Amino acid sequence: MNNTKSADKQPRTGPNGKPVRPFIMPTSIAGKLGVWKYLILRRVTQLSTLVLFFGSAHWAWNFNEQPIISGNLSSSMLLGFIPLADPFAVLQILMTQNSLLTEVLTGALIVLTFYFIVGGRVWCSWVCPVNMITDLAGKIRKKLNIQNAVQLSRKFRYIMLALALVLSALSGVAAFEWISPISIFHREIIFGLGTGWAFLLGIFILDTFILKDGWCGYLCPLGAFYSIVGKFSFLRISFDSPSCTHCIECTKVCPEPQVLDLKLATHKGYISAGECTNCGRCIGVCPEDSLHFDLKWWIARNQQNNNLQIPSANEAENLTKKDPGRKAA
Amino acid sequence: MSSTSLKARRKFLKSITQNTAIAATGGLVWAALLQKEARATAFAIRPPGALKENEFNAKCIKCGQCVTACPYDTLALANTSDQIPIGTPYYIPRDIPCYMCPDIPCMNACPTGALTHELEKIEDSRMGLAVIDIENCLSWLGLRCEICHRECPVKGTAITVEHHPRKLSKHAMFVPLVHSDACTGCGICEKACPTDEAAIKIVHPELVQGVVGEHYRLGWQYDSDITQQYKAEKLQTDTPAEAESSGLDYLNAGDL
Question: What span, in angstroms and rounded, lies between the C-alpha atoms of B77 and B86?
Fold first, then answer.
């Protein structure tokens, strides 16, 4: 066990007895690419989604005489025969007590199944166009060292989720779809610009000057919806507890640091909170290589194969009793 | 109870109250926005097969697949600066009208059913209704124009040309008249109208169409309900009487 009191004098050691090493950005380009691997991949998927929609609508990009992907992120048709739909938008419409055609219901089910497999909030960090703006805001506030101006609970998003559903039922229209900056931004890029950028400017200002990750981390009801999906998703970040020195480099870069509950992760073998967006930032910065993408059942099987005992909740508590990471988070 | 746990409890209660207050304020603003947006007056000209405005606004998922499906680039999605419920499809007939594709691709592209897939013929669609401003219509002013009549895709049914007496002249005028039972509201007439500002315009039927009401009896029209009803009743009551005295019909009885 490490002794936090003597941390200043001696080199700190993690609960596994190894010295705590800070994350140092590699100087080589290859090393940097290794750290930024998932960031680059995320930008590629975010931008290519946007470009594919735009190309199908404006330049008639097609495959087999069918538009590659017509529509937008609310609902679309892939290659002319695979319907896709935003399950949260569909849920809101159903709350207004209107029936829907099977096409959009099938689409919502397909999308829901996809995120059920790859992680609910993979939507947030890998597809949602607003993520690029909030990431930029995060970068700027870090550079300018801006502190939060207000305090809000991370659970506030679930109140927004409940509000969206209740207001849909009361007003008779899909409540979030009528004000969603995500839908407005994406729609106006594809189908003609209006004043939707003002909403984005609002989010940018909120995230930069008022509250870190204010929109994505506290307010967005769509993120809250996918957090619930993520709770049951298969693809998660696995946590290799024995190699971790609790250097908390991961919580420094994580946009949802509350999910890096290392006690819980030690017990489960992976980051179990649905609010984890599977963005992979933590994987790149971990100096001990303790974090990876993995499938839930694979993690469990590996632990059995290696004859490793999954620590019980009590043992995990003992392992991480003086966990500096959790306090800092 | 120790002072630290009391402090923690106070902090907890304070944060709960703050969060609830923010949620309540936000919820009110949100509800007000919805009220303003979603209860807008029905004036947007919608693609064929659109449900009634309320239902349409509820069901439309704002995906724009109808917009992409339209081969004439007629449709657009309302953006934040338009005066039309945000994100919903509409078109401006004077810019690009609906050319009434027989296979109705926009309607069939709709994934939610906000555009019902129930229209069998595009001629059955009611996107709007053409209305003529007879003060500025060239034909109604006495010139020979009738372009709207000739351009109309439901020619001779939706817009007919009628005689109309001319003041201080024995020559009649030929004036266009719109018939709502056949007009689809495609807007080809509005696009074709040669006046500076179109003298024939597509408007949402609810904005101009009245409803007569059940109690008015138009007894002089042969096919009006009252005439048909009266005839049917009369036939019923007359039949037994006729059977008794067929004297009037003896010439037609065939035994002459």
Answer: 8
